[in-house]
Automatic annotation (TrEMBL):
Record carries keyword Phosphoprotein: yes
Xref: SMART domains: LytTR, REC
Alphabetic keyword roster: Phosphoprotein
Protein name: LytR/AlgR family response regulator transcription factor
Family annotation (InterPro entries): CheY-like_superfamily, LytR-like, LytTR_DNA-bd_dom, Sig_transdc_resp-reg_receiver
Naturally occurring in which organism (per UniProt): Pontibacter toksunensis
Pfam families: LytTR (PF04397), Response_reg (PF00072)
SUPFAM superfamilies: CheY-like
Modified residues (4-aspartylphosphate): 55
Length: 254
């Protein structure tokens, strides 16, 4: 299998290439363009790729521009820190959409999906593959605007605009309001992340999702990480990893 990785962060491109190589040792990485211009130039001259992994936010703009300039025939798996582009991504030969940080198990599922679609398409034309891909897309759900939480023995709802952050701690997920109130919510961070408006909420790390209105101050930390001061104040150090730092800054600047 010939794969192209379009990614402007070398560490991220190398990490993804390593994951793919471990999952499919016979894979050949043909190229790793880091910008729209580089990707367009490469794809215009080379059409032998079987699959493309493509980050949406590149150094010179939105990568959907690539597919407006070049008639790409192979399927695409998009990678990004934001899920609001999912619908547009699925209009561009996309068979999957992976949110960063990318995990090996997510890539494995995406590759299996690609192989399944290829197998189903052995006796069909490319137009039929497009139809199959469209049928396989998950339905998009609206963003959550309220949350059911526990208050003592009772259940109450908290409006979405009052949610400052979500914290996973020892198997329990808490919702913190801007007023400093803390409630237990009966969902995992993974479930919440898929339901939240990612223009307003960001998954900082495995334990924490923050509302953009709760970010008060960002301080550079060692090794490219970021330390956050948030409201309401939390009794813990909140650090954005080196891997998530650029995506976090892009999210704040949308």
């Amino acid at each position: 299998m010939n794969v192209v990785i379009i990614e402007d962060e070398k560490l991220a491109a190398d990490a993804l290439a390593d994951i793919v190589a471990k999952l499919r040792p016979d894979t050949k990485i043909l190229s790793s363009p880091g910008s729209i211009m580089e990707a367009v130039k490469w794809l215009e001259l080379n059409q032998e790729s079987d699959l493309i992994f493509c980050d949406i936010h590149l150094s010179d703009g939105n990568s959907f521009e690539i597919f407006r300039k070049v008639d790409v025939k192979c399927p695409v798996i998009f990678t990004t820190a934001y899920n609001q582009y999912a619908i547009e991504a699925f209009k561009v030969n996309s068979i999957d959409y992976l949110l960063k940080p990318i995990m090996a198990e997510d890539v494995a599922k995406a590759l299996k999906k690609y192989e399944s679609l290829q197998q189903r398409n052995l006796t069909k034309g490319y137009g039929d593959l497009q139809e199959i891909m469209q049928q396989s897309q998950p339905k998009q759900l609206g963003a959550r605007n309220r949350f059911l939480v526990k208050k003592g023995q009772a259940l109450i709802t908290v409006p979405g605009e009052e949610a400052a952050c979500f914290l996973a701690e020892e198997g329990v997920v808490f919702l913190f309001t801007f007023e400093g109130k803390r409630f237990i919510i009966n969902q995992t961070l993974d479930q919440l992340e898929a339901q939240l408006d990612d223009r307003k909420f960001f998954r900082v790390n495995r334990k924490f999702i923050i509302n953009i209105e709760a970010v008060e101050e960002i301080v550079p930390y060692f090794k490219g990480r970021l330390s956050l001061k948030v409201k309401p104040p939390l009794e813990m150090e909140l650090v954005v990893s080196t891997y998530r730092a650029n995506a976090f800054k892009q999210w704040l600047d949308l």
